[in-house]
Design goal:
Strand content: 15-25%
Largest sheet: 4 strands, antiparallel
Order of helices and strands: HHHHEEHEEHEEHEEHEE
Number of helices: 8
Structural class: alpha+beta
Helix content: 40-55%
Distance between the termini: 12 Å
Length: about 250
């Protein structure tokens, strides 16, 4: 698992979306609404799902005021929008496997939009489960690496907290957990004061598909951009390996 590093993909996504921070905050706000509705209310102390989304929000540099507004909006009586989660699977250009997680107020609309994006990009939208078997659902915590950090100490702290796997990269540490243990591992590492670049449940590809020729690379990048630009799309997971990934 550690051989399929997610950090390059996360880093590229963050760099590309810095100018679209408002859109990211809006999408996380929808996740907060789902967490408040399904996780047990607006108090993070009693809602582990909400705590996880707040950690993700902070990793994306979402201001605390924005987080609190989203929680209050989700908990308020005036919250008229009913968001639902949905997952779409299929194949994109270059035969890469893709899983798209959405939060939407109109499942009919987003289903049509997903089909259009896949078709327009030369891919195929498939049925539920058609590519999910190629991925492992794992908690993934990416810790920013600084010069004063001791790799062995962090690894031991992560494993003692219940992590399943650990990877040391040049500029970050990756901590993998069972989804059920994600919250407890994340909270244990928070106590040590680490800065999280990313902290969320992720779909980790078991194997990757190398995208090597320029034409296919351009098609894949445009396809992923179309998905990211859709307001309802929360996360896009794929098994593509790009030339600069280091995979």
């Amino acid at each position: 698992m550690s051989g399929h590093s997610k950090w390059a993909n996360i880093k590229n996504r963050k760099e590309k979306t810095d100018a679209q921070r408002g859109k990211i905050f809006t999408k996380i706000g929808r996740e907060i609404a789902i967490a408040v509705k399904e996780g047990g209310g607006a108090d993070p102390a009693n809602n582990s799902k909400l705590r996880d989304v707040i950690a993700k929000a902070k990793a994306n540099n979402m201001p605390n005021d924005n987080i609190q507004r989203s929680i209050k909006k989700a908990a308020g009586d005036g919250q008229n929008v009913n968001y639902e989660e949905a997952v779409y699977e299929g194949y994109g250009p270059g035969n890469l496997a893709v899983i798209v997680q959405v939060v939407t107020d109109n499942k009919n609309r987003i289903a049509a939009e997903m089909r259009h994006i896949f078709d327009k990009s030369g891919g195929n939208l498939g049925s539920t489960g058609c590519v999910a078997w190629m991925f492992d659902k794992k908690g993934l915590i990416v810790i920013e690496r600084t010069a004063d950090m001791d790799e062995d100490d962090i690894m031991m702290q992560a494993l003692e907290a219940g992590a399943e796997d650990f990877a040391a990269l040049d500029d970050a540490f990756e901590v993998y957990t069972d989804p059920a243990e994600f919250s407890s591992v994340r909270e244990a590492l928070e106590v040590h004061g680490y800065t999280f670049i990313s902290a969320e449940i992720s779909m980790i590809p078991q194997n990757t598909v190398a995208i090597v020729d320029a034409e296919t690379l351009e098609k894949v990048e445009k396809f992923l951009e179309r998905l990211d630009d859709n307001d309802d799309v929360q996360e896009v997971y794929h098994n593509a390996s790009f030339p600069d990934d280091g995979n």
